[in-house]
Predict the structure.
Amino acid sequence: MAQIEVRDVSLIYDTPAGRVPGVKEVSFSIAPAEFICIVGPSGCGKSTLLNMLAGFLSPAQGEIRIAGQPVTGHGMDRGVVFQDFAQLFPWRTALGNVAFGLEMKGVGKAERDAIAREQLRLVKLEKFVDAYPHHLSGGMQQRVAIARALAYNPSVLLMDEPFAALDALTRDDMQRLLADVWRETRKTVIYVTHNVAEAVYLADRVLVMTPHPGTLKTEIKITLPRPRDPLSVEFLDYQKELLGHLGQKTGNGHA
C-alpha cells in the first residue's frame, strides 16, 4: 500500500509577467520506507513539489495524500531539511536545536534531551551536544538539521538539496551518512537534487522532471545493492541513463 499519493497535482504562480505554471499534472505514489530522489533542471518544479508535500504550498488542482489523509498544511508526520545552513537557531546548542520540535509538542525536558542525544548519536555528533551552530562546520550543521527533523519521529523525511552547498568531500561523507541513517530508521525519504550521481547513490527510484511547465517525464528504479560503488560500471550506466533523460551528454554526475 502506498504511503504517499500524488494525484494530478498542478500549481500556478502569479508573477508580474502573468500566470506561470510551476508544476503540471504530476502523479506518482511512494511506498513506506522507500527512498525517492527527484531530479531535473532548474525551474522544473522539484522544490515546488517538495513544498506541496510539506504543506507549505497548496496545489491549484489535484491532491496529495499521506497515509490516506489529504495534505492541508504542515504536519508532524513530515520532517523537512533545507539547503540553507541558517535553518538552525543560532542561539541554541546542537542539543537545543534537535530538541526544539519535541519542546513544541510538550515533551518533558528529560525525555526530549534523551531523544535529542540519541538522534545526535545517529548522525555521529554525540560529542557536540553543547556546541552552537557557529562552532560547527557546514556538514555538521546539516547533520544537526537531519537529527532535528528525525527527533519528533515523522514518518516522512523531505529533503531539498541539503548537501548542495557543501564541498565535494563533505558531500560524499554526508551521502554515506544519510544512507546509513535511512537504513537504521527506515523513514520514507523524498530527496530533491541536481546531482545525478547523488540520486543513483541514494535512491530506490529516481523521478525525472522536465521544465516549463514542470512535469514528470519518467521514473527509473535503481536496483543496485547497497552500499553502492560509485565507480562500478553499473552505477555509471544508471548515471548515463539519467543524463540521457535530462538531455546531458557528459558523465560528470551533474545535471
Summary: The radius of gyration is 18 Å. The beta strands are 4-15, 18-30, 35-39, 61-66, 69-70, 78-81, 156-160, 188-192, 205-210, 215-221.
